């Protein structure tokens, strides 16, 4: 018999500083990936080149540079012959396997290393203080930032300082994003007013372009139509007799998300195998839409299958959102939710 676990809308996850640090590692989906398990698309040679570049980068991790190396050169503090940028930055569209590659790098490097989403690092600073975060992460060999993006000026200044000081300490950095480093923040806030901070971020990375199609939907049929609300729970119980199933109404779930910090969404979906989501509606508010992006990422990370009613996930965001400053985030979210819905309703493995 399936087990009905607490609905997400009734959960209040708590997260201590120790748990924040312990949680800086690849999620369940990427816990055992490697460069060997990444299958480059022959039609896009940049994917094979990215694997080669990351293998070479992994071999350099752990080689601490002298204080004032790269950053001494950047700010005129060091001698000639300064080190190359401390970071590698995977730029590409959604669904080309950037997170797989970043997690593979994490697994290939020895020593202390951290792997987290952008929001997890900003929350770590909030929990520890900026100086304490720098002190802790400066002892790490590698810091990986998945889905690097700047949504507001405060994040721009914060992450610019954090990355600069970690690079100064000799920490290797690796990031993924859908946006080139020098273009971070465009369409979201007055990025031109923070160009210095954005340039500081851009200058510390060597950019590796990863082209390709969204592998989650390559050659697959369109997503199945949503079910009716009345049949969702019976469908889930019949098709997932041994699963842990959370049943949520879309409205209350959205209300809960506004009161839980996005950094805790990983804990919000703990112990859930299947999410039954009733009466999905198009999200009109940008703030809620951005929170749903984070929730979708955590559901995808934990490989939570979705059985849903209401509007299909390609209608989750408004047309304005899908063509606005956050369009890349929303397209990635639709891609991932569609994959989870296909897995939930058609019994396919999620890619």
Could you characterize the architecture of this molecule?
The chain folds into two domains: 3-13 and 215-346, Rossmann fold (3-Layer(aba) Sandwich), CATH 3.40.50; 42-209, P-loop containing nucleotide triphosphate hydrolases (Rossmann fold, 3-Layer(aba) Sandwich), CATH 3.40.50.300. 40% of the residues lie in helices and 13% in strands. Strands 3-4-5-2-6 form a five-stranded parallel beta sheet, with helices on both faces. The protein is α/β, with parallel strands linked by helices and 351 residues long. The radius of gyration is 21 Å and the shape is globular. Keywords: ATP-binding, Cell cycle, Cell division, Nucleotide-binding.
E-strand count? 9
Query: Helix fraction?
Result: 40-55%
| Sheet/helix structural class | alpha/beta
| Cα Rg | 21 Å
Which topology of the largest domain does CATH recognise? Rossmann fold
How do the helices and strands line up, and which of them pair or pack?
Blueprint (H helix, E strand, L loop, with lengths): L2 E2 L12 H6 L23 H15 L9 H6 L11 E5 L6 H11 L4 E5 H11 L1 H8 L4 E5 L6 H16 L3 E6 L17 H9 L1 E5 L22 H8 L4 E6 H8 L7 H4 L5 E7 L5 H16 L3 E6 L8 H4 L4 H20 L5
Helix pairs in contact: 2-4, 5-6, 6-7, 7-8, 12-14
InterPro entries: ATPase_AFG1-like (IPR005654), P-loop_NTPase (IPR027417)
Organism: Nesterenkonia halotolerans
Keywords: ATP-binding, Cell cycle, Cell division, Nucleotide-binding
